[in-house]
Model the fold of this input.
Amino acid sequence: MKKISKKLLSILLVLVFALQNFCFVSAAEQYSGKPPKYIFMFIGDGMAWPQVQLANNYLGVMKNGKDSVKPEKMLFTTFPHAGTSTTYDNQTYITESPSAGTALATGKKTNSNIIGLSPDGSERYETIAEKLKKQLGYKIGIVSTVNINNATPAAYYAHQPSRKNYYEIAMEIPKSNFDYFAGGEFLSLNGNNNDKKNIHDVLAESGYKLARTKKELLALKKGDQKVVAISPDRAWDNVMDYEIDRTTEQKELGLSFFTKKGIELLDNDKGFFMMVEGGSIDWSGHANDAATTVHEVIGLDSAVKEAYNFYKKHPTETLIIVTGDHETGGLTLGNTMTAYTTHYELLANQKMSFTSYDKRVAQFRESNATLETVMADIKTYFGLIKKDDPDAEKNPLLVLSDDEYAAVVYAYSQAMLKSDQRTTTVKDKMMYGVYEPLTIALTKILGNKAGVAFTSLSHTGLPTAVFAVGAGADLYDGYYDNTDIAKYLFEICKVK
Done:
């Protein structure tokens, strides 16, 4: 009897082990459909669940009124499949964009500042874009609000030991033979030491058509081959203008325009893959600028709408994925001062991005502007006012408390000094980092009054959101690693 029991137990253990293996087969291995012909990979750089929810909440109060508790969902948050992705890299739980982009593009981990290579640099990781180009003959598009040779766009076509090898990254564009690149101007146009051949000239000689003016961009049409489209409306560091700063005319050439134009140029019978990055979400997060962040996330959603319009015409042949590479700023919804209340509508009082206001601060410094002059300007562009302001009774939520006003006065005193003359206490570094003291003090105060807060001027280890619709989209339900986002794509597209 004991022998029989032991035998039964052994059989049961084998069955349990087999069942476990069956149950934990990866979702990708269960996919049996046809490879999608049209694939869109949207990446909100620095965008995780908090940024997504804040944008939905902001849209809700702006549409339904400040007293409503009814988020207005962005399109991509209505997609039928959603998941959560971990973001750690080979070195740290708090990733950088190069390693995060590499994970999303290749399905493999690497060190923080490496692009498309193994941690020791000995192995070249092939990206999903390269696989689709080589194995299936798909056309490939790379689009970003930031520089075309910045980390996340580069992760889909370049292989470099450092993200700072901007010139070398750009030199990999001709090697990639990809069909469409669009975004901000290239970094290091003539090399880091200004001693190399101009990137534009190299690309033109390699057969790429460059479009750099509004007229040239609007003239691009189906049939144009190998295009590099550079936004003529550029902000700090030659990235595309922030959405919050765009005039009505400039909005015509936002991320949604370059996405729509990409669809027009890439559409063909074999198929295409397009990576579209909302890269400036990250930069506004670093600056703890909640209002600018919200507008950048909404701008990304506008680009997704262009892809979704295409999806509706090809629902069984298209896959759209929307995710982030990491979270930036440690954004959270709620803080000690506002407790259980929120006032997201206050963010609408901010009229420009942190980079644009930095320029005004520079003018204040040059003209040695008085505090009174600066406070009047703050009221215009942030809505924040002193207790004795004539509008204080009408706008009580925007009145600066004694502590907040003291913080503004101190930041003003620092802003009026040249950067090498400012105090560098631990408190100052924690408050301002590398940013303009007055500007970041204002973005933080307005954010706090709105009911949000930031914990960092850097990235955090928060997991990111993933949304998907179309062929194979159900694979992206659940909780998984960022490398799985690429691995699932390999399986869905049946590439090796």
